Amino acid sequence: MPEHLVVVGAGQAGGEVATTLRQRGWSGGITLVGDELSPPYQRPPLSKGFLLGKLTRQQLYLKPAATYERFNIALRLGTWAEAIDRAVKELVVSDGSRLPYDRLVLATGGRARRLTLPGVDMDQLDNLFTLRRIDDVDALRPHFVPGRKLVLIGGGYVGLEIAAVAAQLGLDVTVVEAAERLLARVTGPEVSGFLEDVHRSHGVRFRLAATVADVTVDASGRRVTGVEVSASGVVDRLDADLVLVGIGMEPNTGLASAAGLQVDNGIVVDEFARTSDADILAIGDCANQPSAYAGRRIRLESAPNAIEHAKVAAATILGRPQASTATPWFWSEQYDLKLQMVGLSAGHDRCITRGGTDTTLSAFYLTGDRVVAADVISRPGDFATARQLVTSGRPVDPERLADSEIPLAQAAL
Fold first, then answer.
1. What is the pLDDT along the chain (413 residues), one digit of tens a residue?
2. Do 7 and 14 form a contact (C-beta atoms < 8 A)?
3. Is 153 within 8 Å of 244 (Cβ atoms)?
4. What is the 3-state secondary structure (H, E, C) of the chain?
């Protein structure tokens, strides 16, 4: 009898594993359960082209809605998983029904991390937002009016992408970041400084090494009018017409935890995407996975990882398990800049740059004489070579690496 697969989560990872299985000839039943009303869609453009109005909702979809019918993939949208009954291998969903499964894939993703302040109920504030889903953008867009004051809390990639869109649409933008520089967790000072200069040239202001102490609200208690920011023991107030919180995400692991699966900064899986229950797999942003590149466990929040991890899960379900050897990579867009990142720079002992101008830069992070990661801004040729250097682990000559007159590929020894 053909097996039945149930996928919880209709995001990039969930959509990819379902369609990949069909494309590879899997004949069992597939049901995709998603709490949003949209079919699986790309999330990265939400804070870029979609927020800017350059992309339609349909252009975000991974596949046309008709494809799921043609692939005999049952979509249960607007429905969420309540519990996993592992004893009888059934998923309990929000409409009270139970979905039997032979294999269950958890692609539950994550949710925007919330700002917590004593005495402040963020849910009661009409002009304070996070951005993670299409309906978040729908709610935010009417407030993106030229001249309005936006206080953006968080200077990570998503925060900076939103700042770029807001600046281009004519809002007055101030970014509040707790670290002393932008992107401090994921990139070096050279790239942080480059991006700060770019944003400042577009009128964005920054409050670095600053934390949010409180928010002030109007008489109704439902609208934020200001953000109190603390830096070096001094608190001052930023006027705000709207506030957007972009301080990262938290993996959705509650369903797995309640089912007794191992969870540790994500749902713990092996190299074949299997959880502590061999019939249940977990993929994408919600999964803590072994990484051949990093030599340790990591949880990656990226669309490329979601796609790669879905392929690993599909191979496991097809009975041809194959661990991923992929090197992590990421991308971002801010203004007309294309940022491409490969590898993880944590733990590097020096950074070498080349090609630095007002609009381009390549930064290479080395451990010893090997490039472990690179950030490339609007230099696509460099990125292609950087991926090869990081993936191959070949030693490089630092002097050649720094010399823009020498082709990057010739930096390898």
1. 569 999 999 999 999 999 999 999 999 999 999 999 999 999 999 999 999 999 999 999 999 989 999 999 999 999 999 999 999 999 999 999 999 999 999 999 999 999 999 888 888 999 999 999 999 999 999 999 999 999 999 999 999 999 999 999 999 999 999 999 999 989 999 999 999 999 999 999 999 999 999 999 999 999 999 999 999 999 999 999 999 999 999 999 999 999 999 999 999 999 999 999 999 999 999 999 999 999 999 999 999 999 999 999 999 999 999 999 999 999 999 999 999 999 999 889 999 999 878 899 999 999 999 999 999 999 988 999 999 999 999 999 999 999 988 989 999 88
2. yes
3. yes
4. CCCEEEEECCCHHHHHHHHHHHHCCCCCEEEEEECCCCCCECCHHHHCHHHHCCCCHHHHECCCHHHHHHCCEEEEECCCEEEEECCCCEEEECCCCEEECCEEEECCCEEECCCCCCCCCHHHCCCEECCCCHHHHHHHHHHCCCCCEEEEECCCHHHHHHHHHHHHCCCEEEEECCCCCCCCCCCCHHHHHHHHHHHHHCCCEEECCCEEEEEEECCCCCCEEEEEEEECCEEEEEECCEEEECCCEEECCHHHHHCCCCECCCEECCCCCECCCCCEEECHHHEEEEECCCCEEECCCCHHHHHHHHHHHHHHHCCCCCCCCCCCEEEEEECCEEEEEEECCCCCCEEEEECCCCCCEEEEEEECCEEEEEEEECCHHHHHHHHHHHHHCCEECHHHHHCCCCCHHHHEC
CB of 382 within 8 A of CB of 396? no
CA 311 – CA 113 distance, rounded (Å): 28
